[in-house]
Structures are given as C-alpha cells and as structure tokens.
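A reminder before we start the practical. When you read a complex entry, don't treat the lines as separate problems. The point of joint prediction is that each chain is placed relative to the others, so the output describes one connected object in space. Small molecules and nucleic acid strands, if listed, are placed in the same frame. In the example below there are two entries. Take a minute to note the order of the lines before looking further.
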Amino acid sequence: SYELTQPPSVSVSPGQTASITCSGDKLGDKYACWYQHKPGQSPLLVIYLNTKRPSGIPERFSGSNSGNTATLTISGTQAMDEADYYCQAWDRSTANVVFGGGSKLTVL
Amino acid sequence: QVTLKESGPVLVKPTETLTLTCIVSGFSLSNARMGVSWIRQPPGKALEWLAHIFSIDEKSYSTSLKSRLTISKDTSKSQVVLTMTNMDPVDTATYFCARMRLVGFESDVWGQGTTVTVSS
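Here is the predicted structure of the whole assembly.
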C-alpha cells in the first residue's frame, strides 16, 4: 500500500519560516494537499493541488511538490499556526486516499 | 454556505454494526465534481480515510477496511450513509464526513465530527 511519511514534530520561532515535509514514492506525480488540525476542531484545508490556497487561507501558507517530497511552508509563523498538519494524496493504483502520519508544529 | 453534519450512536458494543449518517447542505450530491468522504481519527492518532462516494455512484474503500465498510447516498435526502460491521474497541474514534473534490481528491469542507466509543 502507498505510504506518506511526515516528521512527527517541527519547531519554529515566531516570525520564522516553518517547513513540513511529506515523503512518498513518486509523490510529485500525484496531487498533494495539506490540512491544519487544531484540538477540538475539524481539519482545515490549507493547500490543495500541490500549491493552491483556498479562499481565506493566509498567504503565508504555501506548498510545493516534486520528486518524492511535498512541502508545506509557513512564512512568518504565528502562534495561531500551532497545530497538527497532515498531508494527503490520492493513490490511483489502489483507489485509496492516503494521509501522512501528521506533524505537530510547535511555535516557541 | 456548505455544511456537513454527522450523526450516529455514541456507544456501540463489540461485534455490532455502526451506522453513520452525513447530512449535507449548500451543494448537491448530484454534482459531478463533488463527493463525500468519511475519515476517522482514533484518540491521539492520525487521520485515516475510510471511504468516499461521488455523484456517478463511484465508490472507493480503504483497502484495509473494505470488507467491513459500505457507503451509500440518497441524493433526494442529501445524505450519505456509512456502515461499518463487526466493530471493535480499536474502532473507537471521531468520525468525520467531508465534501471531496474530484480533481485532487481533497476534502475542502468538513463536518464537526461525531465521537464513537466501542465498548461492552
């Protein structure tokens, strides 16, 4: 089965840039998206189709996807960005949606 | 405004069948570019996709859970139903339904989730 691998945790200082990676075999050939998930809330889509931001998502969120790695970048990270982040892709060979294991972003 | 709302039992016993309903509003289940997915999150664990259904009645199931899952929709009632058989304590989780877009299979609007505990 297809797997997506994320670092369990990422730390960043306020105002700095946070990068969260998501690795999978030939992931660059697929569309990746990213969700922000805060405790007690529903997940929020922050990046889709590798690089697109939904309406209402701040410009500091950006995405890229090439080779075997998709990356979520948060520029000028704010305390409110502290959350779990999940990458997701569609695996055509199994017709399965696959989530990464999630990365906990700490802003300190 | 697009909304989705899950409903179902809070507690089920081991071996029982779980039935969850997702009522959608603000979009039609007959929209060719939209579908509904079910995702769950066990306590302290990652999100796990379970199944999805699109307007053309195309259905996909998690490979690991396929034998236990059935997804269906009633367009006239704007609802999607997921059943999961032979429930086990490891199935204790918050279950979400979400609107899924066909191009990238991303879920752009999520319900609030419903928590299901499996215990005797």
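Discuss with your neighbour: Chain B has a mean pLDDT of 96. What might explain this?
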